[in-house]
Write a structure and sequence with these properties.
Blueprint: E1 5-9, H1 18-21, H2 24-32, E2 35-38, H3 41-51, E3 61-64, H4 71-82, E4 86-90, H5 103-111, E5 115-118, H6 124-132, E6 139-144, H7 149-166, E7 169-173, H8 179-189, E8 195-200, E9 208-213, H9 214-217, E10 229-234
Parallel strand pairs: 1-4, 1-5, 2-3, 2-4, 6-7
Antiparallel strand pairs: 7-10, 8-9, 8-10
Organism: Faecalibacter macacae
GO molecular function, one term: methyltransferase activity
Pfam family, one: TP_methylase
């Protein structure tokens, strides 16, 4: 039986003080291991240095797992588990394996009956839902919506209809530099009584979370350009 263990290590959602969002136990785990599977090496090294400055960077073994990782590269990562290594998976931001390529390696670990340990940390998706005032009992996450205008309009109409029919809160994301355009699109496509929460810069000093009807968003003053945001819809 393998002695491997996989720790899912949450990272920060931005330049927030790490002791505000990460428990000490997470830091103990990071101190105890040197093998990490990460989405981006540069940001992972920065994160580890920030939370555990005493760790020697040259001692770290970092392996990349991102959206471009091919099956052969994933096979090489699986060898780490077969060798009995304890590894930490670190996402680019927030929780690994949630809207994150780390889920591929977690699936393999579970298939191999290897212990997977999720650590406590910030989840922009759930924190947005928590603060939105929308249906926390029944919700769905859809990731990024289509870029094509016609496809986006069609998809938003589908989500609104589903929310209206079932009461399900619909959660989605947008690339930060298209946030303002997204809100403009929402005000043109959705019904005036549909509610949208925009949860921006979660856990940061600039955090801004607003739930408004489409009617109110049309008159709202905002600027979410280049700021990470989560959207929650309730029709």
């Amino acid at each position: 039986m393998t002695t491997s263990k996989v720790y899912l290590i949450p990272s920060l959602l931005g330049e927030s003080p790490y002791n505000r969002v990460l428990p000490e136990f997470n830091l103990e785990i990071i101190r105890s291991i040197n093998t990490f599977v990460v989405e981006n090496e540069k940001s992972a090294r920065k994160f580890i240095k920030q939370v555990c400055p005493e760790k020697v960077q040259s001692d770290l073994d970092l392996y990349i797992l991102d959206k471009d990782t091919n099956p052969q590269e994933l096979f090489e990562l699986v060898k780490l588990l077969d060798q009995g290594k304890t590894i930490g998976i670190i996402s680019e931001a927030g929780l690994p394996a949630v809207a994150d390529p780390g889920a591929q390696l977690v699936k393999v670990a579970q298939d191999k009956k290897i212990q997977v340990v999720p650590l406590v940390g910030p989840s922009s998706i759930l924190m947005a839902l928590m603060a939105s005032g929308m249906n926390g009992q029944n919700f769905a996450f859809h990731g990024y919506l289509p870029i094509d205008k016609n496809e986006r309009k069609k998809r938003l109409g589908q989500l609104e209809a589903e929310s209206s029919r079932t009461g399900v809160a619909q959660i989605f994301m947008e690339t930060p530099y298209r946030n303002n355009q997204m809100i403009e699109d929402l005000t043109k496509i959705l019904r005036t009584d549909t509610k949208i929460c925009v949860a921006c810069d979660i856990t940061l000093e600039s955090e801004d979370i607003r739930t408004r009807s489409i009617k109110d968003w049309k008159n709202e003053k905002y600027d979410f350009h280049k700021r990470p945001a989560i959207y929650v819809m309730q029709a």
